[in-house]
Queue: 3 jobs
Job 1
Amino acid sequence: VLITSDVYLDYAIMIIFSLALLIGLKTKIINRPMGVILTAGYVLYLVTTFFK
């Protein structure tokens, strides 16, 4: 199995997104409904990326 840089890029985006969301929720920049919407959108993005 060949691991391309795309996979690493996806993981980097995932980690950055998770951290940004956590910080956003902790500092109340992102309220809970917005966080849920962002997370749902991101999960959809992941699913479409990995299963195309």
Job 2
Amino acid sequence: MRDYALVHGTDADLPAVRAALELYDVDPIGLDRLDRAVLETILHRFEGGPVGLSTLAVSVGEEAETIESVVEPFLVRIGMLGRTPRGRVATNAAYAHFGVARRSEETLFGP
């Protein structure tokens, strides 16, 4: 933010902060483009998960190490992503944030 204010010759006030976040494509809860790509991929391509790290990385076009060390800790900390022995899963908070309805659990014998 400080860099943005210096470059644009403005104070670090609320309008400047909002402009900087918009410029850097950060949403109101702090998700950037890659955070959203990871969550939207899990929600839409993998029906909420679970999905393995390497499969997720290929799907979003990012290195697995970047997802594991940069993206995941933040998403887990804010309650948007869960890690299970079978892979990464979207949480109820992720479904709510993206306005996606959770599919009902189906079993071998029906819903």
Job 3
Amino acid sequence: MDQIEDADVEMPELVELVDDEGGLQEIIDIVRVHRWKATYERIIATAADVNSLILSNHVQLLTSSTRTSTVLAISHAVTLRLGGR
């Protein structure tokens, strides 16, 4: 129970989403955005030849949401909660 109360304090945006009717789907979308972002960053960091389509998709992913900063902050918090996976 303490972990749930800690989440209320540490991640109020996440708790607000869970309480929202469509919040679970939004959390799933946030996690997907985080995974895609990490995938693109890994490709960009390791590929010898990064083409413009990959870079364009990465930029589009980062700017597609009107709540990008919230999405990234929550996805970071989710990552920390999952032990950095």
